[in-house]
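G., the chain you wanted modeled:
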Amino acid sequence: MAPDVMAQGTLYALRQKIASIEGQLPEQLEPASQGGSTVLRRNGRPCLAIDSGMDALDAALGDQQPTLIDISGSQSRDSGAVSGFALALAARASRKTSSNARQVLWVGLDETFFETGFPYALGLEHFFALSAEQLLLAHAPRIEDALWIAEEATKAGAFSAVFLELKGAPARLDLTATRRLRHRAERAFMPLFLIRHSSPKEEAGQPSAALVRLCISPAPSTFRRIGQNALPRSIGPPAFQVELRKSRSGRTGTYWLEWNADDFTFQERAAPEDARNRGQTPDTGAVFSASFNGSDPAPQTWRPLADERRSG
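Predicted structure as tokens:
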């Protein structure tokens, strides 16, 4: 018995030390594999779990309490997939609330909105059941203003989720700034989604206090299905390639998901390489029709000035 008691005491001391380094309370009493009961802070309130609905990804994410979630994309053209994945996670969480849905705050820099565009109201309603009345958009001219708005909005607790949309990895978004955002989110029991566009993989090693870091890329959609049959040349549900770069469980990996807007859940799908190996032939039709009158002949050289000089 004595060695077991000493081992438990050592484990408790280590948890206290790690918690003090991370700046949070050691609330998790048991590991997730043993049931993992969680104790709330004093005067705390229950919070919503952030999950995808896919068992493999949720197990890799670990503890699903609301926190700062870093969701990035390597290219600007992937901004729709990056923002859509963050909205899908928020939509799953909001479905678990009461009928009195709170608003969502979307904070972004002016330069980011100029390049990636504004959230599209009809698309938010169709894919995520988020009406225009529930979305509050905040323009910030500087990164300092955007960080301040996100912190104060999270502290107020008047929103169901806060989105902070930036480009790349600004110098002001350092370890101190992300630690402040994370503490605000965890104290308010509210998810704060840090959306970063044009963030290449080499920036993934930058210091960040976010416990969850994901890199999102669009994946080829499958055909729409009518019963058991696929509709040729159709576009199926939105698909994502999710690279888990950092998680509370310490696990990483790559997952391919599809968003089911009817059931508000992600569904696992085969990787593109696996799909080809299973005999699912891709659409190899002609991209452009053939030219009507053959190839365009090369234009003849025309030098009127040189001819005029010789003639003069």
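The longest helix spans residues 2-22.

Shout if anything looks off.
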